[in-house]
Structures are given as structure tokens and as C-alpha cells.
Automatic annotation (TrEMBL):
One of its GO terms (biological process) is proteolysis. This is Membrane dipeptidase. InterPro entries: Metal_Hydrolase (IPR032466), Pept_M19 (IPR008257). GO terms for molecular function: metallodipeptidase activity. It comes from the Bacteria.
Length: 315
């Protein structure tokens, strides 16, 4: 398809840049990066979300978060092909321009320690999507791998309220089930699962149960089908055909206009076969075109996510 456009709601290339300051997003000669400028070009990318992820062994403070934002500016936004997306108007312009939008998300708010001033500062710096936890527990909530499975703390609730007030979108992808439902109890705000699949097809705790997906959809939220092979298929090698099963399931649950992709490229060490980096997205697209209309595939790849952001990012 000549006008292939794509949006990816989650990648971890910023984490790799944080770990190894010599790496280049613009032209990677090491083969260490999945998401690079040439590959985003191959993918017809209109928007890439860049997650700030601070590994557990690093200091739980604002420092590594701010270092990631510094790297985002110096190594990604400094490339003339890229443009910062912070507002509804920024998102609205993307479809008709040659630049690739770059959005900032925070994967795990451990380093904020519930300090709402830090959250407001991150908003000023352009962070527009926040996942309260990574896999484990922090001051705000339990992550999905925390055995006790707790929900939101009092500080976590205040944090959610401030995100809602500011217009920061909340990402439920790593939350415990209890925290997911706690979040759903707030005034019905659309939430995002930036990189999660259907648990009814692949029983991994990082995936969402059908009732969770239905609740996300009902509240007007979005789900980003992810290419983490262990979240695609429980046993055996994951194939593009297995990714399609998750797309089908989400459509079956009523989410055909709320489905997008969140690759998790650069956050994974193994890959769905033939889906190793953004430059191979056309293979997934071709597989989808065999089953869905061109219009629908266009929605899955870009239209749904852009429409959502135009509607829900701050003005
Ligand atoms: Zn993740």
C-alpha cells in the first residue's frame, strides 16, 4: 500500500540511549537498536511514543528521568525529521506532514515518590502519558508482578487525580488487576493500555482479561497490541498470525476503533517471527489486509491512535 502510515505507542529506545550514551537513533551502526530513524521512515511512521524507563538498579529519583528527557531532546528531537507532540493540535497536524511525531511517556513513576510538583514539572517538559508502575510495587500502586496484587495507594489516587486534571493520559499496561479496577472507578476517563494483549488468548499476567479490555473500550480508551512474543503466544514461536488473533479478539470485544499497536521494540530480547523492528511492519500490514479492509487496517495502524490523541491531548 503506497500510503502506509503507522503509529507505535510504546518503545524503549530511550532506555537503551540512557544505558549507552554512544548509541545513535539517527543512524545506528551497532545493530543494538530496534527503533531508528531509517526504520521509522520505512514504517511510514507518523508518530512514535518514546517511553522513559529507568531500570530498577538505577536511582529511584528524578535524575535518571531528567537524563532520559535530555537524551530525548539531544538524540531524537534534534533530528530535523522529528517533531514534538504535546497537544491536540500537534497530533492533528501529523497526518499531513512529512515529519514524524515524537511523544514522551513515563513507564513507572517510582522516581516521583508521589510528589505532584514533580508530575507538573514533567508535564511542563512534555510528558503526556504516564504508567504509575512498572512490574513491581511502588509508592502509588502494585505492578502486575507484585504477588500481593494491591491496588492504588492514597498517594496513587492523588497522583491519578492530578494526571486527570493536567490532561496526562494514564497507561494501565503494567498495573496489577486490582490497581486497574481502582483506576476504572475514577470518573470515566479514557485510559490506555499502551502495550498489552488479550489474556484469554495468551495467559500472561501482563495481558488484559476480556472484562478489562471491555472496560477500557467502554470508557473510550485504547489498547495497543504488542509484539512481545511471550504476550502473543504462550507456547512455541510467536508468528504474525498469532498477533492477528489478538487483533481479532479485541475487535470481537468491540474495540475495532480503539485498537492500535504498542510494539515494545527495544524493550524485548526476542521477537515475533518476521517482526524484528519497525522496518518490518509492512509484513503485519499485509497479513491484516488479507483479512480486513484497507480502511480498517489504516485505522489500526494510525487512524485510531491519532483520532484519540486529537480528542484527548490537551489543547
Ligand atoms: Zn513495558
Amino acid at each position: 500500500m503506497p500510503n502506509f502510515r503507522s503509529v507505535d505507542f510504546h518503545c524503549d529506545v530511550l532506555w537503551k540511549l540512557l544505558e549507552d550514551r554512544s548509541l545513535s537513533f539517527e543512524q545506528d551502526h551497532t545493530g543494538k537498536l530496534d527503533v531508528t530513524l531509517p526504520r521509522l521512515r520505512q514504517a511510514g511512521a507518523v508518530l512514535q511514543t518514546f517511553a522513559i524507563y529507568v531500570p530498577e538498579r538505577m536511582e529511584k529519583s528524578m535524575v535518571p528521568i531528567l537524563h532520559s528527557i535530555d537524551l530525548f531532546h539531544r538524540k531524537i528531537l534534534s533530528v530535523p525529521d522529528m517533531t514534538f507532540v504535546r497537544s491536540s493540535a500537534d497530533a492533528a497536524r501529523l497526518m499531513n506532514r512529512s515529519k514524524i511525531g515524537a511523544m514522551l511517556s513515563l513507564e513507572g513513576a517510582d522516581g516521583l515518590h508521589g510528589d505532584l510538583a514533580m508530575l507538573r514539572i514533567l508535564f511542563l517538559l512534555g510528558v503526556r502519558v504516564v504508567g504509575l508502575t512498572w512490574n513491581h510495587a511502588n509508592w502509588g500502586a502494585d505492578g502486575v508482578m507484585e504477588p500481593r496484587g494491591g491496588g492504588l495507594t492514597k498517594k496513587g489516587r492523588a497522583f491519578v487525580e492530578e494526571c486527570d486534571r493536567l490532561g496526562i493520559l494514564l497507561d494501565v499496561s503494567h498495573l496489577s488487576d486490582r490497581a486497574f479496577w481502582d483506576l476504572a472507578q475514577f470518573a470515566p476517563r479514557p485510559r490506555i493500555a499502551s502495550h498489552s494483549n488479550a489474556r484469554s488468548l495468551c495467559a500472561h499476567p501482563r495481558n488484559l482479561a476480556d472484562d478489562q479490555i471491555a472496560a477500557l473500550i467502554q470508557q473510550g480508551g485504547m489498547i495497543g497490541v504488542t509484539f512481545v512474543p511471550q504476550f502473543v503466544k504462550a507456547i512455541g514461536e510467536s508468528e504474525i498470525a498469532d498477533v492477528l488473533r489478538h487483533v481479532e479478539k479485541i475487535c470481537e470485544l468491540g474495540g475495532e476503533k480503539q485498537l492500535m499497536f504498542g510494539s515494545d521494540f527495544d524493550g524485548i530480547e526476542s521477537y515475533v517471527r518476521n517482526l524484528n523492528h519497525p522496518g518490518e511492519l509492512h509484513k503485519l500490514q499485509n497479513a491484516l489486509l488479507a483479512r480486513y479492509s484497507e480502511e480498517m487496517v489504516g485505522r489500526f495502524f494510525a487512524g485510531n491512535a491519532l483520532q484519540f490523541l486529537v480528542k484527548h491531548l490537551p489543547g
